[in-house]
Write a structure and sequence with these properties.
By secondary structure, this protein is of the alpha+beta class. It has a domain of 150 residues. The protein contains ten helices and four strands. A four-stranded mixed sheet has the order 1-4-3-2, with no helix packed on it.
């Protein structure tokens, strides 16, 4: 299943240039009903499977952090179920019942994390396998839009220019989409996590990247008071385990 995920992402073209989130602007634009980036309208279009512009995906993704439904530390039981079933999914010839179950679980998982790249990827796979090309393409564009939004928020090569995420799992989805094997992530500051790679990545400029930085400040800002993060956590991709909170 993971190989399919990587092959799918390899097809995605870049959508936009760097766009670091401006919190003041995002809050103003997404809360103003007269704004073209009003969150409620964008979310309605997203749920209706309309293709959005790179700017609209940007405001939608980061604007979610200001919504009452944004609960980044909440348990996502449907996502847990989906991750647990990934190793057993027959990707070459899945039956209809299995695919319909995947779609149902994915829809439940999106209620907690509507922008999960892994869940969106599974919907692309399921609808494609069922021959529903219109929905397959719609979720493909959503998947692309969210991934490029994250990657456009910073190059991730330094702590000063991290990629910005609203859920911890999104960071690891990004690295997997880039074909990278990663180690356990470490929190290096109040807002930033560093995820080292198993093998350094050589860039076009000849420099080696040993890992990537991600800004998780939105998660920290919205976490319950009783939840604290450990300095080190083990992250799983195809078999999501319970978060290691103290």
């Amino acid at each position: 299943m993971r190989r399919y995920f990587l092959l799918l992402f390899a097809l995605l073209p870049a959508l936009s240039l760097a766009q670091v989130p401006n919190e003041e602007d995002i809050l103003r634009q997404t809360m103003d009903s007269s704004s073209p980036y009003y969150f409620t309208k964008l979310m309605m279009r997203y749920n209706n499977l309309e293709r959005l512009s790179p700017e609209e995906y940007h405001y939608l993704y980061y604007g979610f952090a200001y919504q009452d439904d944004y609960k980044p530390t909440a348990t996502n039981s449907a996502a847990e179920e989906l991750y647990a079933t990934l190793p057993s999914i027959n990707t070459t010839s899945p039956d209809r019942a299995e695919l319909e179950h995947i779609v149902s679980v994915c829809n439940d998982a999106l209620k907690v994390d509507p922008f999960s790249p892994m869940v969106l990827n599974m919907l692309v796979f399921a609808y494609g396998a069922m021959g529903e090309s219109e929905k397959e393409l719609a979720y493909y564009y959503h998947l692309n839009g969210i991934m490029e939004t994250i990657k456009a928020s910073g190059d991730g090569r330094t702590e000063k220019e991290p990629m910005h995420i609203i859920m911890f799992s999104h960071a690891y989805n990004v690295l997997s989409s880039m074909g990278m094997a990663y180690k356990r992530g470490e929190i290096v500051s109040r807002n930033v996590e560093f995820v080292p790679l198993h093998e350094p990545r050589r860039m076009p400029d000849g420099k080696k990247v040993r890992g990537y930085y991600f800004d998780f400040s939105r998660i920290y800002r919205n976490k319950p008071d009783e939840v604290t993060f450990q300095k080190k956590r083990t992250w799983q991709f195809n078999n999501l385990g319970p978060r290691e909170y103290k």
